[in-house]
Design a protein that fits this description.
Length: 128
């Protein structure tokens, strides 16, 4: 059985955003990008590396996928963070992405997310 684990950076008031730059996501007039940077601590990186040791796939939306692909695909082998992020299979949910832009990617199209997640055994359900 595989587990689907959600890993997010979220503020107490519900803002979900990666520890990227101030211009990462400006939708809806959001002007607080990069809010995690002042709170970053090396323990976060250590915890992230530990959690990633058993990851064999990512399930991403198109926007997150494009940001990650742009950051990690160009990294040369031997970069510890690049190796960690480039090794797993990637599944991206998108109706608009024309072709993969990151190695080992499968595009999930249309309204098939539930079917694809179950088929790929990301989630295991018990019926009692």
């Amino acid at each position: 059985m595989r587990k689907l684990i959600v890993h997010e950076f979220i503020s107490l008031d519900g803002v979900v955003q990666a520890p990227g730059g101030k211009d990462e996501d400006r939708d809806g007039g959001f002007d607080h990008g990069g809010w995690t940077i002042p709170y970053w601590h090396d323990d976060i990186g250590v915890a992230f590396f530990q959690a990633m040791q058993t990851v064999d796939a990512f399930l991403l939306g198109r926007r997150t996928y494009e940001i990650h692909a742009g950051a990690f695909e160009p990294m040369k082998p031997g970069d510890p963070f690049g190796d960690l992020m480039n090794a797993p299979r990637k599944y991206v949910v998108s109706r608009t992405l024309k072709q993969p832009i990151w190695r080992d990617t499968t595009i999930i199209r249309d309204n098939t997310l539930n079917t694809e997640v179950r088929r790929r055994s990301f989630v295991h359900r018990h019926h009692t």
